[in-house]
Amino acid sequence: MEIRRLESNKLSFYRTRHKFENYAEFSTVEEFISCYQWANKNKANFYILGNGSNTFFSRKKIRTLILKNNLAKRINPINAEEVEVSSSVLVINLLKYCYENSLDSFYYLASVPATIGGALAMNAGRGQEHNLTIYDFVVSVTFFDGSQIRTLKNIEIKRSYRETIFTGMNNLLIISAIFRFPYKEIDEDPIAARRDWSKKFQDYNSPNCGSVFKYGDRKILGKLKGLKMGKANFSSKTFNWINNYSEDSIFILILIKFAQLLHLLLSKEIGLEIIKVD
Ligand SMILES: Cc1cc2nc3c(=O)[nH]c(=O)nc-3n(C[C@H](O)[C@H](O)[C@H](O)COP(=O)(O)OP(=O)(O)OC[C@H]3O[C@@H](n4cnc5c(N)ncnc54)[C@H](O)[C@@H]3O)c2cc1C
Question: Are residues 157 and 82 both part of a single domain?
């Protein structure tokens, strides 16, 4: 494992291209610790990257140390309903395991291209009105806190809508989690059903990171539907969703700033859901 330069358009689901000054992939906690020590020594910010489906790189040159989670992908059954899953596993692969074993699960995340680590960090779930998130099935989360490996039980993990103690730029690496999925008789394939739903209601015309803001004024955001700035636009199909057609992140940034400015002028609150990394 080495910290190196990388030019890529693959690290964010917006598919923007960037020159990453410092990039590394870690496959063990020890490798993560050595990157972490490098960042401390060099007074560098660092960012833990899952699958990049909620990550927005805002500049051409990214100086933040990007640490891509390449831990071994493990789904280890503990008993018929409990399973230990490493943070690098894709959500869809855990859902397939649940479906094959007739277990209830967060099947509404079948349309989300996330890692388990990213989904736990973001408190991923359905829209706010549904009050359903991945944590409905979490028993505990094991993480490295910058000095030691710790485990917190579900109720000990502070969180709110699309936010947890792990969200954004911090030194907490989620290593694995234990889930409890109760047995359930399942008739219709819930994964296919969710995928059909997302094709119908979500805009997959071009690269995107799903919802952009975790809260904002519905009237203002509604009016922004279809607004285009250069090679990016607010989707006219899906509320609060930016479609990108460029390798340059500037157009997305302008759309975000514009929405924030409108909220400021009209004294309304707005909060970014996607994580902006410089
Ligand atoms: C088409 C589409 C649909 C979407 N639909 C939904 C939806 O229905 N509901 C929803 O909630 N979200 C949705 N999203 C947003 C996104 O998929 C989620 O936020 C997801 O949880 C991000 O996972 P990731 O692995 O891609 O994380 P990344 O984008 O890589 O990272 C997101 C955050 O998680 C942190 N993180 C990642 N891995 C770890 C780790 N191992 N330890 C600690 N921190 C970590 C990062 O540092 C960052 O703060 C959608 C996105 C897309 C593209």
Answer: yes
164 Cβ closer than 6 Å to some ligand 1 atom? no
For the chain, which ranges sit under pLDDT 50?
none
Instruction: Note whether 55 and 92 are same-domain residues.
Output: no
142 and 174 belong to one structural domain: yes
The H or E element spanning position 219 is helix 218-223
Check pocket membership of 207 for ligand 1, CB cut-off 6 A.
Answer: no
User: Is 35 a domain residue?
Assistant: yes
What's the confidence (pLDDT) of residue 169? 82
Report which of 81, 125, 119 is spatially closest to residue 103, judged by C-alpha positions: 81
Smallest CA separation from ligand 1 atom 53, residue: 209
Between CA 39 and CA 192 the distance in angstroms is: 42
Provide the pLDDT for residue 171: 86
pTM score above 0.85 = yes
